Amino acid sequence: MPPGNYYFQETAAPAGYVFDSSKLNFTIALQTSPIVATVSAKNSEKTGSVLLTKTDEDTGNILPSAVFDLYKSDGTKVQSDLVTDSKGQILVNSLKPGNYYFQETSAPSGYVLDNKKLTFTVELQTIPQLAKVLAQNEQQTGSVELTKTDGDTNLVLPGANFSLYDHTGKEIRSDLITDNSGQIKVDGLKPGDYYFQEIAPPAGYDLNSEILNFTIAFQSTVKVATVSLTNSESTGVVALTKIDSDTGQVLAGAIFDLYKADGTRIQSDLTTNTQGQIEVSDLKPGDYYFQETAAPSGYELDSNKLNFTIVLQTTTKVTQVIAKNAEKTGSVSLTKVDSESGNKLAGAIFSLFDDKGKLLKSGLVTNSAGELIVTGLKPGKYYFLETTAPEGYILDTAKHYNFEIEIQKTAKISTITVANTKRAVILPDTGESTGSLTAVCGFIFITLAAVIKRKLKKVHKIK
């Protein structure tokens, strides 16, 4: 080329590079010696872009407000505090071809930070290319706490067994057992709807199959969901049996009221049936008592409290209560009389026996009115036996004076009359045989007549 000034001008850039249309000036000098002019032309690689999209790991919903830093692959920070917009996106332009990575520095509210490196490459831009990066976050998990209590006392109940389900009915956890504080705590639950259901109650309690719904809220701040469930104690049964305190025979018609130990009346006018029983069911474990308000006819009222306990029904148990009544007692009045005149005789002494010959009382003496009275005798058969006759009267130790005390539906006094005959009077000897014989004969006649008369009276009484 002749000496002079020249320039190059690029008309087409290499693929992937930026076209440079600037003039590249150079001069061809006078060639006193051979000189080669040199020109250097440079092209910049075309820059690319990257688009990061942030979504919910489970739902795919876009997530704004995630914050990232951008690095070259060698760790050189390129940009910081890049925030996903309302579309969950970050767009970064003017990136030269090469390897890069995003790293999350702050997760959206309610989500777990994911600080792993999200690598990507900006390719040589022979044609425009947009690098894309998908970033996902999982929601922060929450917790639930279940408390199991007694429906009456509010005492906590260990040993209840539950299963946990999601809103579709899928079982998530099983064999969740309440601890000594009556609680179950489950962590790691993603926001959503769930429910507990009791599988087995604590020992001695009825199963409560109620569905316990709860929601794990979006964890923008840490929240623990709480649920509670009560159980009613299994109820028990008490059977009261009323018997005669002496014979053990069952007694119908006794009336009772039933109370809690604190005096709260639960039921009234409970009456023993023909088997002498009252049965009361649906009693919760605890202390109770029966109290008699009316005794069977002919029996003494026993107003003492009949305490009993319904124990925790780990197995079905019937509590037994025995109530006894003593029959009302009666009285007997014995009157001692002269067999001839009917005059009352004091000083006769008797013993009292039951119908089996058992001595009950002795030394019973008729008073000045010829009477003795014995009280406190239970219904049954008895007899008196005279042990000492009044002075001047004949004693008959072989004779039983029988009587009976009836059932005392109303107060009754049994009465019995006992007659004694005077001893014979022996006259002194005067020496006059004829007169003496006559007197003796007369006495014998009178005595025989008295004996016959007495026997006739007894026969009349028996009739």
TrEMBL record:
The chain crosses the membrane at residues 433-452. SUPFAM superfamilies: Cna protein B-type domain. The keyword Membrane applies. Keywords: Membrane, Secreted, Signal, Transmembrane, Transmembrane helix. Residues 2-37, 48-124, 142-225, 238-319, 330-417 form the SpaA-like prealbumin fold domain. Belongs to the serine-aspartate repeat-containing protein (SDr) family. NCBIfam families: LPXTG_anchor. This is LPXTG-motif cell wall-anchored protein. It comes from Lactovum miscens.
